[in-house]
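Design job #97: recover the sequence.
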């Protein structure tokens, strides 16, 4: 048995793989593959409509928010967001609490002024900054809810009247929150909601159409909304896998249901690591991610022993990101609790 702790592309539910595979061979008993049907046919339109409907249902979104499934990963949104929301003489506020937030800041500076309200770079992004002020004149405030590489997570939504923009690529739909408080949410699908190749974007329409610059059609959210995410040929298969994953999530009790499982997985693993001699957790306790658990083993002989044991036990994806080192275990929605139990048993046996 394989235990897939990869950070992304990552584990998906077994039933999603099975149904997606069948869809490649014979989509809904049509004799056609999902890979070859026209994207503007009723067959695929039903896929898109249901995926959007389920997203709104699971996130309890109001009518002011539109759901889009767009090409490209979350990195595309680093520049598409300021292109649509920020004039050159205006300021956007950003929180720098990880590699991806830092990259988003760099891209935003191409389109306007950027005010970095706080940064945790001074301690290698091992904590989430607190007590910062968001400028009242900022066009929006951008932050990353979960830092995949560094293993930190923001559990509280900032209190502000400034439009909130959040990169939720690695914790979207993993725990409950008031998603309607955000002006924009975006997430690469390949961690919690589907296959790589599509980006989920939720946008409140009143923030659009206020910049002076001319926008290329493919970069204009308004055109994507009007076209129902079909301004050009969408990533058909990736969206279909999103639909199947959203169906699975609803069956699991929705976001509220999966949150209970995710809490149990994270609590068990952190408790084991805290109690095990020779393992170190660099992230501030109050900011520890429930999706990406980062830890170190300073003793190189024990580190090798742990890696060898993981390999023999069929545990993949446990090595840390190349920029951080150590180890990273990703506990995304589809990861079975049994995999966490197997990992903690292995740790306790070392």
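Job complete. Output follows.
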């Amino acid at each position: 048995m394989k235990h897939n702790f990869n950070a992304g592309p990552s584990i998906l539910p077994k039933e999603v793989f099975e149904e997606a595979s069948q869809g490649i061979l014979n989509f809904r008993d049509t004799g056609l593959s999902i890979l070859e049907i026209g994207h503007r046919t009723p067959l695929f339109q039903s896929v898109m409509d249901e995926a959007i409907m389920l997203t709104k249902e699971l996130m309890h979104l109001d009518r002011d928010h539109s759901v889009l499934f767009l090409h490209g990963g979350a990195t595309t949104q680093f520049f598409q967001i300021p292109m649509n929301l920020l004039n050159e003489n205006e300021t956007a506020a950003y929180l720098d609490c990880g590699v991806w937030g830092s990259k988003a800041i760099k891209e935003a500076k191409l389109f306007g002024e950027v005010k970095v309200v706080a940064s945790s770079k001074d301690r290698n992004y091992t904590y989430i900054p607190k007590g910062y002020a968001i400028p009242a004149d900022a066009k929006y405030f951008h932050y990353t809810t979960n830092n995949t590489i560094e293993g930190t997570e923001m559990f509280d939504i900032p209190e502000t009247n400034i439009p909130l923009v959040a990169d939720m690529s690695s914790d979207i739909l993993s725990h409950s929150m008031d998603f309607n408080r955000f002006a924009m949410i975006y997430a690469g699908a390949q961690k919690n909601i589907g296959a790589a190749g599509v980006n989920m974007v939720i946008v409140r329409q009143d923030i659009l159409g206020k910049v002076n610059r001319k926008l290329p059609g493919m970069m204009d959210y308004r055109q994507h909304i009007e076209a129902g995410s079909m301004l050009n040929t969408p990533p058909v298969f990736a969206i279909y896998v999103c639909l199947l994953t959203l169906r699975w999530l609803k069956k699991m009790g929705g976001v509220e249901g999966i949150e209970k499982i995710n809490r149990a997985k994270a609590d068990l693993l952190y408790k084991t690591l805290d109690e095990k001699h020779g393992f170190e957790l660099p992230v501030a306790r109050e900011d520890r991610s429930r999706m990406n658990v980062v830890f170190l083993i300073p003793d190189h002989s024990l580190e090798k022993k742990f890696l060898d044991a993981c390999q023999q036990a069929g545990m993949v994806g446990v090595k840390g990101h190349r920029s951080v080192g150590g180890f990273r275990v990703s506990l995304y929605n589809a990861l079975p609790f049994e995999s966490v139990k197997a990992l903690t048993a292995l740790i306790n046996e070392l």
